[in-house]
Amino acid sequence: MLSISKSAIPLAERMRPDRIEDIVGQQHLLDKGKILDRLIQQKYLPSLILWGPPGTGKTTLARILARTSGADFVFFSAVLSGVKEIRAIVSQARDAKEERGAATVLFVDEIHRFNKSQQDGFLPHVESGLLTLIGATTENPSFQVVAPLLSRCRVLVLNPLHDEDLLIIAKRALGDTEKGLGDFNLVFEKGALEHLIKMADGDGRNLLNSLEISASLVEVGVDDKRMVSLVLAEEAIQRKSLRYDADGEEHYNLISALHKSLRDSDPDGALYWLGRMLKAGEEPLYIARRLIRFASEDIGVADPQALTIAISARDSYHMLGSPEGELALAQAVIYLATAAKSNAVYSAYKKVQQEIDRSGSLPVPLHIRNAPTGLMKHLGYGKGYEYAHDNPDGVVDQDHLPDKIKGKRFYDPTNRGYEAVIKDRLEKWKKILKTRKKASTQ
Predict the structure, then answer these.
(1) CA dist., res. 85 & res. 299, Å (int)
(2) pLDDT in tens, 144-188
(3) Does 289 share its domain with 188?
(4) Residues 265 and 385 in one domain
(5) Residue 216 to residues 130, 181, 225, 324: CA-CA distances in angstroms?
(6) What is the pTM for the complete model shown?
(7) What's the per-residue H, E or C state across 143-210?
(8) Are residues 92 and 52 in the same domain?
């Protein structure tokens, strides 16, 4: 019986391309005349940050770029290494430069896992040219790489591999008898290979790992063929691991997509992004908190029930947990998506904050101050205050803002939902006060 592995090295590592022309995907960087093609032709390698999802070729590109530039290549893992190792690499790079005139390319895998001081440790050596840094990250470098280091590097964005790219990778591995699975005579039932490709989610390493597991599970059939059925492919995959990092850019991308779907009154889009976040392992109570925020920011009093619904969904999930409580979140998402929208509350409060920043601590008008003591009454506290309930209409004509900003308007209700009722009510009160004022002057 054939062994699944010709060595202890995983299939994904064995199938790693050695030449730039064997890299699959990333044509926006590698096609003739594109940036990496030009750098390779010139044999010039600046410091780079390779930003992209897992399994898209960041490490492979770094190794090939270092080789084509003629530089020494040093692999450095931000997960496993620290300051001690950095010092050793710097010393090694100095020796290589002095003894052989060789440049050193330092490849830092998962550079986003370095803290600020560790990243700062590279700066003088990158700046002096002793080290050419290639950092690989799955996270947005704008958030995860310190500004001084980022300014010294060119950021290249790698995209998830297309299904067509993954099919090429799969066929190479299945046909390669030296490094791949060519000796296994694997054949795939209709839909099985397509399932593995789809579940790889643009990740070449994920696909090769799934192929390797499939090969280890399959049994020899007729004519020494090994048939990978759809059921076996599903067994090899178990379930899809969605691309997501609760602290990274994809987290913010998905919550943004949810928020904007809600704002645009699209319940289908909102439900989809809710499902994506929950499936990927997002904390449901975080989502609930964002729904509460949305209820005030984008709906407000256009539908006063929205805030109550959002809070109830949070409480329901808190009581039930997953998966039962997730239905309450879905209910809230549909309600919020289909509710009347208004940002008038959000805008009004923002205007108030800006006014306070501009005008400072203006004094409370005397007539609306409380006067619990005789001295305060003597000083005019509460003098001239009109009690609204003493008026037949329940409306009084008195100012409640400080004198310097008297008459300022912050809240401007829309004509949508319950805010239309509020707008009519405010206009009605304004007319009552105007009529009363006119009558008193006659």
Answers:
(1) 54
(2) 888 888 888 899 999 999 999 999 999 999 999 889 998 888 889
(3) no
(4) no
(5) 46, 10, 14, 37
(6) 0.64
(7) HHCCHHHHCCCEEEECCCCCHHHHHHHHHHHHHCCCCCCHHHCEEECCCHHHHHHHHHCCCHHHHHHH
(8) yes
